[in-house]
Design goal:
It contains two helices and eight strands. By secondary structure, it is α+β, with helices and mostly antiparallel strands.
């Protein structure tokens, strides 16, 4: 997969999974939205998310995305909160207010595989 094909695949895939590691070494994974914007990988997490707490002690992250034709990608990097990015978000299932913080991910490795041709 070329770099252009990868970015088109990644940004065209609606949902990705993000993995972090807690202070005790326990892994955490959750669905997130993440896309490449201006050559940088950006994502958001909820203000109270376990992954946000994880990133305060270990900034290493991994993301994965997959497509219906078997295309898949794994992205590794180091996440940093974007300063002053805490924003109100849509309400959750309980109807209570929620806030998100933006993340900028410095990508360190990418593995990508094309899917089957139709």
């Amino acid at each position: 997969m070329s770099a252009l094909e990868f970015v088109a695949f990644w940004n065209g895939t609606r949902m990705k999974a993000m993995a972090t590691v807690g202070a005790t070494g326990a892994p955490h994974i959750a669905p997130v939205h993440a896309e490449f914007v201006g050559g940088r990988l950006r994502s958001t997490v909820f203000e109270t998310a376990v992954r946000r707490r994880d990133l305060q002690t270990n900034a290493e992250v991994a993301f994965t995305a997959w497509g219906p034709n078997g295309a898949a990608a794994i992205v590794y990097g180091r996440a940093a909160e974007v300063p002053n990015s805490l924003r109100d978000s849509r309400t959750g299932a309980t109807g209570g207010p929620r806030r998100t913080v933006a993340l900028d991910i410095a990508v360190t490795r990418i593995y990508a595989m094309k899917g089957r041709e139709s």
